[in-house]
Structures are given as C-alpha cells and as structure tokens.
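Standup notes
- HV: blocked on the assembly model, inputs below
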Amino acid sequence: MTDVAAYMEGLGRMAREAAPAMARAATGAKNAALSATADLLLAHTAELQDANGKDVADARAAGLDDALIDRLVLTAERIAQMARGLREIAALPDPIGEITGLAARPSGIQVGRMRVPLGVIGIIYESRPNVTADAAGLCLKSGNAVILRGGSEALHSNAAIGRCLKEGLAAAGLPSGAVGLVETADRAAVTELLHMNRFVDLLVPRGGKGLVELVATEARMPVLKHLHGVCHVYLDDDADAAKAQAVAVNAKTQRYGVCNTMETLLVAESRADALLPPLARAYKEHGVELRGCAKTRDRIAWAHAATDQDWEAEYLAPILAIRVVAGLDEAIAHIARYGSHHTDAIVTENWTHAQRFLREVDSSSVMVNASTRFADGFEYGLGAEIGISTDKFHARGPVGLEGLTSQKFVVWGDGHIRR
Amino acid sequence: MTDVAAYMEGLGRMAREAAPAMARAATGAKNAALSATADLLLAHTAELQDANGKDVADARAAGLDDALIDRLVLTAERIAQMARGLREIAALPDPIGEITGLAARPSGIQVGRMRVPLGVIGIIYESRPNVTADAAGLCLKSGNAVILRGGSEALHSNAAIGRCLKEGLAAAGLPSGAVGLVETADRAAVTELLHMNRFVDLLVPRGGKGLVELVATEARMPVLKHLHGVCHVYLDDDADAAKAQAVAVNAKTQRYGVCNTMETLLVAESRADALLPPLARAYKEHGVELRGCAKTRDRIAWAHAATDQDWEAEYLAPILAIRVVAGLDEAIAHIARYGSHHTDAIVTENWTHAQRFLREVDSSSVMVNASTRFADGFEYGLGAEIGISTDKFHARGPVGLEGLTSQKFVVWGDGHIRR
C-alpha cells in the first residue's frame, strides 16, 4: 500500500468509526457542534486569513488567473458568511429519526419508516474554501460523517476551517473524526477516495464538468451528480403576454453563469409576432446575444442564425437560443431531444397545456408561469443545498438535508409471529 | 458491433422510445394492459405449457437437477397464479402523478413534488419463468418500460409469456415495445445490458449471490440489489418470556430458505438460564441444529461450538447460531459487526431499550417484539415487491412500486420572477 493509500484508508476508517455516534447524536448536540464551529470561525478569523494568505500567495506564484484567486480569497465578510451559514443549518429541522406512515397491518404489526443518515459522505470540490464549512455542516446535521477533499490550491485554508469543525464537534461531545479532511494535494488521494466504497456511502462532486465526469465514471459508490443545465422556457399559444415577457426576461438575465438560467426560449408560432419583438428589445437592453431559427430571424432581424449546437448549448453567458415551434407537442419534443432534464417552464393560461407540460416534461424541476431561476434549494424551502442532482435515482433537483438520508422500516409488535 | 450488441441496442432503443408513452399513460390504460395480459395467459395456457415443455425437455437432456427443473415447470396452476398476480398489481394504487408537499414559498411560488417513473428498468433473473410476468407487471404499473433477461433454461417459456405481455399492451393502446425480452441465451447479451446506461435507468438482479455480485460490479447504471440476510433476534434483559419464545421460534422455523429468517439468536446473560432451555426444546422438536458460544453450551449441552464463521453465516437451513451477550450494548455491537443490515429484532418490555435498538441498529428493517419473517413487501402493505434492497441509497428493505419511481419538483407560479 502506498503512503497515500494508507493515509486515505486511515481517514476512511476514522469516518466510518465516527458514523454510528453521529447517527445516534441528539439534535441538540449536532446543533451545538455547528454553533461552536461558527463561534470558532469568527474567533479565529485572523488565523484563517493567515492560512488563506499562504494559499493566495502560492496561487499568485503559480500564475493562477484572477477569477480563481478571487474565489479563493477569505475576506472577514466571507468568514462571517460561513459562520452564518452554519447557524442557518443548525436552525433547520433535524430530519433524522422522523417516523412516517406508521400504520397497522392486517397481521397486527405496525409498520412505518424512520429517516436515518446514509453513513459517510465524501465531498470532492474545487477552489472555494467556504464549501468546507457549508458541506460539512449539511452532512453533520443530517447525522453523517464526512470526508472533504477540496481544491489543492486551498489546502491551507481548508485545513484551518477543518480544525474549527473538529474542535466544534469535540466541544459538543461528538467525535472529531466525523470530519475528515484530505490534507494532501496528491491527486492519488482522489483516486483512493473514489474506490473506498467500504468506507464511503455517497460521493458528491462539486465543480466543473471534468471533475463530475471523472467522479461519475470512476466512483465505486453512488454519486450525487449535477452534469449540466440546458433549461427552456416555452411561451405557449395561450401565454399571457405580460407573464411571458416577465418570465422569459428574468429566466435569462437575472444571472448568467448559473445552471438554472434559461438557455433556449421556445415560442408558439401563433404568438411569435406578438411576443418576440418586445422580448428582443428587452434582451438588447440587457446586451443578450440572440441566436434564432429562421422563423425567429423573420421577427428579429439582428438575431444570428442558430445551428444544431445552439439547441444543446449551456452558454452560462448573455447568449440565448430562440426557436419558434408549432405548439405544445413540438415544444415537449424539443425539450426531450435537446434538454438536460434540469429545469423547464411553460408560460400559459391553458389548464390542459399546463397539466400536460407538468406531467410529460421529464426534468428535475417543471414549472408553470415561473422563472427557471427559482430552481434552488433556498427558494424551494430546503434550507440549504448540498447540490443539484440531474439524476433520477434517490434524489432529483436541489438536494438538501433529506438527500443525505435514507429510510429504514420500523416494525412494532407485541410478540407477533408470522403464520 | 457484434450481432448480440446490435440486437441488445435494438431492444434498448425500443424500450427507451416506449418509455415516454408509458410515463404519460393513464392508470386505466395500464390496468387494462395488465388485465388483458392476465386473460391472454389463461387463454394461452396450452401454448405456454408447450413452450415450457421444450425448456423442460432441454433441461432434462442437459442433466439439470430436479430442484431446478421443478422451478422451471409451468403447471396450469402456476399460470393461473401469474394471471392472479397481474390482476393484484392492477388493483394497486397508481403511484405516478401523485403530488405531495405542495406549499407556498415566501416568493409566492408554490413548490411540491410529483412522483414519476424512472424510465427503463432492466431485470436479470434466473430460472423461474413467473418472474417474467410479475416483474414486468410492477414495471409497467409504475409507468416504466422494461427489458427482461431471464434464465437461458427458460427461454421458450419466457418468450411465450413475453408475447402475452406485448399483446396485452397493444390491446390497451400502449406501445408493445415497453416490454423487451432478451430472446438469446448468449451470455454476451448480459454484458451488453450491464453497459447500456444510455437506455437503462435501473437494473434489478434477482438470483443467487454470483449473479448479484456480477451485476453490482459490472453495471454502469444504478442497481437495486439484495446481497444477503444475516438476521438477528435479541432477547433483552426485559424480554417477556412468552413473546421471546414465540418470536425466536417463529423467526427461525417458519421457513428456512429465505433471507428474512433469523440466523443468529442473541440472549441477554441475565435471562439465559430462563429462556434458553425451553427454546432449545422447541428447536430440537423442529430439528434445528444449534451452534452456540461457551455460555450457550453451558445451558444447552447438545449445542455444537460456534466459530467466528457462524456469526457471519447465512445458513438458509435448519441451523441456528446462539450467543449470550452482556446486554443491549453488546447485542447492538454484535449486529453492527456481523450483521448484513437486513432485518433485526429486539424482544423487550423496556421502552428505552426498544427506542435505542430502533434508532441504533442500522438495518433495512428494525423490529420490536415481532418476528423477522415479517420483512416482506406483502406484509408491509407494499402490495408486491420487485426485490429487497440491502443498500441504503434510493430504497432500503422490501421494494414495491414506489421504488421504481422518482420524484420531480413542480413549481406553480403566476408570472413569478426571481428578484
């Protein structure tokens, strides 16, 4: 066994051993650990910034670009935000131990389901050090142990945050081994983590497409993954013009670089003359480049011609593809063919069209008369999210505490036997 | 591409194309397809038995053993049972389309979850041809398409049942491609199926350990798997003697060859003198061989000495391992170390001990004062089960229709935009 393999096995074993204590921990103890960590982050602001300063200096020396360095920097405000985030997680209801559906069966036994932690969660993420606190907070609150492998450029920052988490756990009488931090930049540590299915019950990759695809392909345990978001808004024959304008502008322009932003607008042909010109004016004001089908360009002279690649593109930028479709069937077919099963919305006043869209569009979030930008754990009331799943299995869409749990059956009897 | 690869790709594409029509199918149409199939199975009893006769003759010629041939034979009664099974599935509530938790958010949108099918389910199973009808029925009722790969020794029988399923679908106006039957004995077809993650959303292996391990290791999509059942009953310090006797005898002797049968009995030392001798008499009457720890053998002279392997054994036979433990903590620790996270029960009158056992034992079913033999989809009220999951992700324990579904978010607005 290599040194890295032995090191990772040690982290895995420590997390696995801490998991039962976390699973049975009282809500008060878990909340106390999160609050104590928040206090420690604030008390150690200067030390965190020192550690972060080393990472930033290394990153500058290595010639990393400004955007990446900006994500890396821990300002006092960002540290305070981490602390607030942990207190918000502490304030969320504890999902663990909840029993649902308990009901008597003809045999006389009562059967229900109890919500339980998954065990050990592995998180693999990139540059932002605040993920260390946010992700660990969600895993601990849901009764899990966690192994964190952050970006190598944030090694010192993450280690300093990790020390606060461990100290916070100890202060609450919980095992500090419930947080394991991978404190080596060696890429082999990631490979080990991906293969440690005897220690890790779920992996959550948070980062670019390359990272997510690597984890999805190589991991020997379930992966909660988010691949990409090619989100649509369809303006139906029966769309209200004001709602169409509001939703289609907001879904594209409220923020560009995020996965729930609309990338393709579909417009029913019967409404193209009425709806496209005012939309084009709004997009022009926002500096959005338009790429349209021939029928779109008939109505918007300055739009570029869209190619087949545009229907599949996740621009994450002020660019929008627009297609005029015959109606609902063609819109649903377009989304099925080119979409990414992330978030799609219809704008319509027609009850039957809305119902068909809700039922037939196979995406993790399906919306009527609302902006795709609402697809978010906070907006959905999940409290905070560990990620957004574009898979169907276990969890779809924004994933909060509940996605880090499972349910077991509980059976209550009085000496019942099976006949 | 080999012939088998092309053949399997054809099946995969057909199922994938049929999936949207199944997903939006009305409950009535799905039920009509199941009823029509039941009628067809009965109407074609003679043809099914002819096809089955070829399989049985081939199996005899190949020298397969009697137990296997018995599982293979389709009697008129077994065909009638398949038809009844399909009608029972038709009578179950349709999980698809159910919306739960719909509630307003501060932004004004309403957010809920809609239950939706997974898409295409692959089932890989061994000799019993009735699985073809049972598993297909559950997949279709839950709005999925299905690809079935049965045992090669049941090829003709499965093909005949498959024709009834396809005809039943067509009679109800649903796509017959929603049932794909692998009609080749070539093992390469299984390998293709395991790698077809672009067509298959979930694989369910049903069969021996070898099959399940092969599928779990090789599959490129999620697998709903059942590995093994090492189930425990713990007789606590505060166990009621009559309940202890009833549960411990039933959990072992009601049926031997099934996964929810008790394999190890744990007894609190304070009660060993009182509880073990009458239990030993009952087990002797049932012809159960006992293998005990030293303290067990002090109380049951005729018990064999247990080794460490006995604590891990899934006997599936009239053999029982017995260990005397200091109390609840040691019982929980024993189950954590040697158990298989399947089903474990405590017999106790003590509220706190019961609560701790329910919370701390990490098994798919945890029971108080009830026989482990109750761990079953029918007993739990799930209607029928596609299998029992010993994993934690997505589904634990007996898996019915709901385990073949997922939930997407639905968002209802009135032109709402994100600020």
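- HV (later): unblocked. The two ends of chain A are 53 Å apart (CA to CA). The CA atoms of residues 385 and 400 of chain A lie 4 Å apart.
- Next: hand off to the docking folks.
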